[in-house]
């Protein structure tokens, strides 16, 4: 402990974070050890580089920006649809397919102070938790293809214990627990405008999850990739926990991507209007990228085709298919970081909790779609909003439990025999 304390103290002094030392000195043994371990784990050189980014003008390069269109299954011949479907089904039948759920978020915006996957929606036919809806999807596929699809769940430091306890309590909703692999995403410290670390109410250095793009490195570091390889997995669908119409077992997308000879694929929906707050897929200098709605100028966002569709209209809705090789490749690449400026409570040296009225701390995140740039091409299957996109993000209004519930119930009334 003494040696580690001296190491931590030296690091804090070297990187001008000496204000943390008094918190260590005053803390009880358990908290003291945890803070020291945090200091020894944090990459302060990386943190310094990230802080320097906050002074840079965030220039968004829009040169050579080109739209890319998805394949519309409504325009496919029946034989072609069947051909792609059979390719995808064979992968699943041969136990080479897995799914991963990004479930690191809290249900704060829903007024639910727990892991978002534990949020419950009341349908006409009964209540279901978000995790339970995913299990239902997997069970239907397992029954159809006579397999058990491995399920990987990425939690966060904030909700891991809650998620593990909840799933154990619910007996994984009847899913075989030996096919459930839970791992935590990485985290980074929050820093102030002056580049200083913060101490949270729990007495520890404040950290936050490093974004959904951190899933690849977390899979590598926490053994998920190794587990997939042992199981012979070749393809993994990665999706979010809060889209209750998400096709986790998307045989058509799987077959299309394999037939195209691509390593990654995605299912999109057409952007509702130029102002909708979603990122869109495009190409730039031969590389695939997702450009955020905040980055796309109005005069470009509003351009339409002859048929009335938006030219830049293929929305990225977090439906991501990766080959295992693509995941391995992405896990060793350093994806770019995006900066968010947020409110963050903190303790003063006197132990007073401060709840700031305005933004006071930088958070650094990686986004999963930034991995697309690593690859030469992507297969895009265009979905339908009423069949593929029912997010549960806000307590009321757009993308709320009420709107998602209506979409979900309408879909299953019209598609009682669908398997995905």
Structural overview:
It is a single chain. By secondary structure, this protein is of the alpha+beta class. It has a domain at 77-267 and 320-414: Spore Coat Polysaccharide Biosynthesis Protein SpsA, Chain A (Alpha-Beta Complex), CATH 3.90.550.10. The protein has helices spanning 2-14, 21-26, 29-41, 44-53, 78-93, 130-145, 160-169, 215-221, 224-231, 251-260, 298-301, 324-331, 385-388, 401-414; strands at residues 65-67, 97-102, 106-107, 112-115, 120-123, 126-129, 151-155, 180-184, 187-189, 191-192, 207-209, 235-240, 264-270, 280-284, 287-291, 314-323, 338-342, 346-347, 353-354, 361-365, 379-382. The strands form seven sheets. It has a seven-stranded mixed beta sheet with strand order 8-7-2-12-16-13-21, with helices on both faces. A three-stranded antiparallel beta sheet has the order 1-14-15, with no helix packed on it. The chain has a three-stranded antiparallel beta sheet with strand order 10-20-17, covered by helices on one side. It starts with a helix and ends in a 6-residue tail after the last helix. The model has no long low-confidence stretch (mean pLDDT 94).
Indicate the proportion of strand residues: 15-25%
What proportion of the residues is helical, as a percent range?
A: 25-40%
Number of helices: 14
CATH architecture of the domain at 77-267 and 320-414: Alpha-Beta Complex
- At CATH level 3, the topology of the domain at 77-267 and 320-414 is Spore Coat Polysaccharide Biosynthesis Protein SpsA, Chain A
Largest sheet geometry: 7 strands, mixed
Q: What is the structural class?
A: alpha+beta
Outline the low-pLDDT stretches. none
Mean pLDDT rating? 94
- Total number of beta strands: 21
Rg is 23 Å
Cα distance spanning the termini: 52 Å
């Amino acid at each position: 402990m003494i040696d580690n304390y001296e190491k931590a103290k030296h690091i804090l002094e070297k990187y001008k974070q000496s204000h943390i030392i008094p918190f260590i000195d005053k803390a009880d043994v358990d908290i003291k050890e945890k803070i020291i371990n945090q200091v020894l784990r944090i990459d302060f050189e990386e943190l310094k580089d990230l802080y320097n980014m906050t002074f840079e003008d965030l220039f968004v390069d829009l040169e050579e920006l080109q739209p890319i269109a998805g394949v519309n299954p409504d325009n496919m011949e029946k034989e072609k649809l069947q051909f792609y479907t059979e390719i995808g089904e064979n992968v699943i039948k041969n136990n080479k397919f897995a799914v991963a759920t990004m479930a690191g978020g809290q249900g704060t915006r829903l007024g639910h102070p727990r892991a978002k996957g534990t949020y419950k929606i009341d349908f006409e036919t009964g209540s279901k938790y978000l995790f339970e809806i995913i299990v239902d999807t997997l069970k239907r596929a397992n029954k159809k293809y006579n397999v058990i699809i491995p399920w990987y769940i990425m939690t966060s430091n904030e909700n891991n214990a809650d998620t593990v306890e909840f799933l154990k309590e619910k007996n994984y909703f009847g899913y075989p627990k030996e096919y459930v692999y839970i791992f935590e995403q990485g985290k980074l410290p929050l820093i102030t405008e002056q580049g200083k670390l913060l101490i949270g109410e729990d007495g520890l250095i404040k950290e936050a999850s490093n974004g959904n793009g951190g899933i690849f490195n977390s899979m590598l570091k926490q053994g998920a990739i190794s587990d997939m390889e042992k199981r012979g997995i070749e393809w993994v669908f990665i999706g979010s926990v809060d889209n209750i119409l998400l096709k986790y077992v998307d045989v058509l997308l799987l077959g299309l991507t394999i037939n195209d000879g691509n390593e990654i694929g995605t299912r999109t929906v057409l952007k509702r209007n130029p102002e909708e707050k979603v990122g869109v897929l495009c190409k730039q200098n031969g590389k695939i990228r997702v450009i955020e709605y905040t980055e796309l100028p109005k005069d470009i966002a509003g351009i339409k085709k002859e048929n009335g569709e938006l030219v830049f209209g293929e929305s990225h809705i977090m439906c991501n298919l990766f080959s295992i090789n693509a995941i391995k490749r992405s896990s060793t690449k350093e994806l770019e970081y995006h900066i968010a400026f947020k409110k963050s409570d903190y303790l003063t040296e006197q132990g007073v909790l401060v709840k700031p009225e305005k933004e006071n701390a930088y958070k650094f995140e990686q986004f999963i779609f930034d991995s697309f740039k690593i690859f030469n091409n992507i297969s895009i299957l265009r979905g339908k909003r009423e069949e593929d996109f029912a997010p549960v993000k806000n307590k009321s209004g757009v993308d709320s439990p009420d709107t998602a519930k209506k979409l979900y119930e309408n879909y299953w009334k019209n598609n009682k025999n669908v398997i995905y």
